[in-house]
Amino acid sequence: MDSIINFINEILWGYVLIYGLLAVGLFFTIRLGFVQFVHFPEMFRSVLGSKQNDKAGITPFQALCTSLASRVGTGNLAGVAVALYLGGPGALFWMWVVALVGMSTAYAESTLAQLYKIKNENGDYRGGPAFYIARGLRAPWAGAVFSVCLILAFGLVFNAVQANSIADAFQGAFGVDKLWVGIALAVVTAAVIFGGIKQIARVAEFIVPFMAAIYLLVALYVVFTNIAEVPALLGMIVQEAFGLGAATGGIAGAMLNGVKRGLFSNEAGMGSAPNIAAVATPQPHHPSSQGFVQALGVFIDTILICTATGLMILLSGVMVPGSELTGTPLTQAAMTVHIGGMGHYFIAIAILFFAFTSIIGNYSYAENAMTFLKLGNRVGLTVLRIGVLVMVVWGAYESVATVFNAADASMGLMATVNLVAIVLLSGTVAKLTRDYATQRRSGKSPLFHAADYPELSGKIDLDIWNRKDPG
């Protein structure tokens, strides 16, 4: 099994995605007029817009928190440490690049998810890549392939990865047996996911801002106490990124590991966050507004949180040639240097919150895929939920190498399907972006008018988009 997984990873990450992700991000950045930079303030307006009373969806802030719940996980802690260990300090630079161009990709995929969303049998919004592939490209078979990949990757494999990181951290910090950590985690997870997507959104809205703020405050403390070393450190990161420094990874190692871990963390282009973006009631009532919300999610995840982890590790001095420290133990060792014996416990608690919220966020994506496959009934969702809990327990004691490699393979297959789809639908994204910007420049609150898009006739739900007052 390891040989098969490694072969798939070599093809996808060695030849397809490492170039494809950057290329698609650059493509959308240029085609959309550097949307992630020009319209950066719009990201905050879209998150904090006036509240609506549309009970079919969740709020933009809840959608942001739920997507961050999934994005901010082991990739921000253990994943960054692995990238630095394998690719050197330059890997952090390539994570920044992936995030900055990936913000445009995240904008595009979430805008499409909003546009092509539907209402399920309970009157709740559902959508995501499977829906825009099936409706926008008239390729329901490809939507089904994507949905199966999503369920395998996010419903199952990725949750094993998150559970593994929690178990490792708690065994190292508190000496708790991994199996018992897995069982306890499964019990708490069950209490949340059996309440459905809206309950997940409410939990994420409470936990995510708190956990992100605490982590960033600690990082700011570390940076300011070592401020004299920061300019030289930033210079070294850029040098190493292009193979000009002393790291053995060179430009290839830095780029490969930075891109892989950058995507694993912020998920831009993977087709995951659009699933929760589709569930939101946009404010203003235009598909692009949810694109802006999810672009902000990429910025928060990588430019803020991953950078915080990377700087804390590099400023600690624990990453030295010949050291075997990597993953969570490397991050914990770095924090111990900065805040003493509490470092081990702080990272263990941080991983608990980061990874637990990832598990419930990942599940919400899989539930959308079940809706597309016509399996979103009580029996189908119960089977999915039990499968999630089994993978949480299994992942808690399985070897980290196996679960990380399997996660890379699943993520690669999903991302490939999604990237092809959003490029084919890029014309629609460009038109929506121009429409939004034109209305905003004229002093209006942007509103989607289906009549202006005759080419979408029969592809979108007019009952959703023809309402002038979504509340």
Features:
2 strands, two-stranded antiparallel ribbon, 1% strand, Amino acid/polyamine transporter I, mainly alpha, single chain, 471 residues
How does this model look, in words?
- By secondary structure, the chain is mainly alpha-helical.
- It has one domain: Amino acid/polyamine transporter I.
- The chain has helices at residues 2-31, 35-38, 40-47, 60-71, 78-87, 90-115, 129-136, 140-174, 178-193, 196-225, 230-241, 250-266, 274-277, 287-316, 327-339, 342-372, 378-397, 400-424, 426-441, 462-465; strands spanning 118-119, 125-126.
- It has a two-stranded antiparallel ribbon.
- A hairpin with a 5-residue loop joins strand 1 and strand 2.
- Helix 14 packs across helix 15.
- The radius of gyration is 21 Å and the shape is globular.
Look at the helices and sheets and give the structural class: mainly alpha
Coarse morphology = globular
Order of helices and strands: HHHHHHEEHHHHHHHHHHHHHH
Full CATH superfamily name: Amino acid/polyamine transporter I
Q: Helical content, roughly?
A: over 70%
CATH-derived topology: Amino acid/polyamine transporter I
Supply the number of structural domains: 1
| Poorly predicted segments | none
Helix run count: 20
The level-1 CATH class:
Mainly Alpha
Strand order of the largest sheet: 1-2
Distance between the termini: 51 Å
Q: Over the alpha carbons, how many angstroms does the gyration radius reach?
A: 21 Å
Question: Roughly what is the average pLDDT, rounded to an integer?
Answer: 87
**Percent of sequence in beta strands:** under 5%
User: Largest sheet at a glance?
Assistant: 2 strands, antiparallel
Number of beta strands: 2
